[in-house]
Amino acid sequence: MIKINFFLLASFFVFSSFCFAEIVYQFNDPVQEKRFYSLISEIRCPKCTSGSIASSDAPVSRDLKNKVYELVIEGSSDVEIKNYVSDRFGNFSDYRPPLEGANYILWLSPFIFFFLIAAIFFFKRRV
To answer: What's the gap between Cα 51 and its chain centre?
Structure first.
């Protein structure tokens, strides 16, 4: 009876440690590691939509982190990696979308609203 309880307790600790396992990324040099962590903090999680893939543990986020890791190890540039992610998940995946197409509204709207509010304030004071 004591052997069975000990075996169950030991197997519980051994098998439960897999639940808390974390993927450890091995890099050739510290520059690659810095690039990797910088990139995953700049890429938005496709599922969570508000957090980066660094802070997300969603399956698609883990897969994307692994792909970014592979591309960093292969020697791809940051622009190539971001282009890969945006081609696959759209411009929404980048916290700083490019200034093109429909994104003009996104980039210029703060300035438009500022000038509208300034114009309203200016004309209200003159009246």
So the answer is: 6
Q: Determine contact, residues 55/37, Cβ cutoff 8 Å.
A: no
Residues 88 and 107 placed together within one structural domain of the fold = no
Task: Give the three-state DSSP class for 29.
Answer: coil
Do the beta carbons of residue 60 and residue 47 sit within 8 Å?
Answer: yes
Over residues 1-32, the pLDDT tens digits come to 677 776 666 666 666 555 555 567 888 889 99
Report the alpha-carbon distance of residue 121 to residue 114 in Å, rounded.
11
Read off the pLDDT of residues 78-90 as tens digits, 9 standing for 90 and up: 889 999 998 888 8
Range of the domain at 111: 102-127
Please tell me the pTM assigned to this model. 0.65
Residue 17 located in a structural domain: no
Tally of domains within the chain = 2
